[in-house]
Design goal:
This protein is mostly beta strands. The chain is 0% helix and 50% strand. It is built from no helices and eleven strands.
């Protein structure tokens, strides 16, 4: 079982930066693939980025590639999303999620943190 708590959201002007953090409980955090997803008002949830349990591979949606960077610190049970060059269309609730090796899909989700980018 993994519990996830996101933080770091807020209001920022277009072109600015934010760093989201996701703190995980549980001794097996280092064995989970971690992902960041987002949901804009009136839209479905969409994938943003993912990182393997060792951090040796990352994956990004085309919409954030080159602007967002996902990283993790297994010693601190934390995954990060550094967001640069933010655009108004990045406005959404951002969720982190965890997927174990035996999970078909992401099985654990945080409560989300709001990111608002003003033009």
């Amino acid at each position: 079982q993994v519990q996830l708590v996101e933080s770091g959201g807020g209001l920022v002007q277009a072109g600015g930066s934010l760093r989201l953090s996701c703190a995980a409980s549980g001794r097996t955090f280092s064995t989970y693939t971690m992902g960041w997803f987002r949901q804009a008002p009136g839209k479905g949830r969409e994938f943003a980025a993912a990182i393997s349990w060792r951090g040796n591979w990352t994956l990004y949606a085309d919409s954030v590639k080159g602007r967002f960077t996902i990283s993790r610190d297994n010693g601190k049970n934390t995954v990060y999303l550094q967001m640069n060059s933010l655009k108004p269309e990045d406005t959404a609730v951002y969720y982190c999620a965890a997927k174990g090796s035996g999970d078909y899909d992401y099985a654990y989700w945080g409560q989300g943190t709001q990111v608002t980018v003003s033009s």
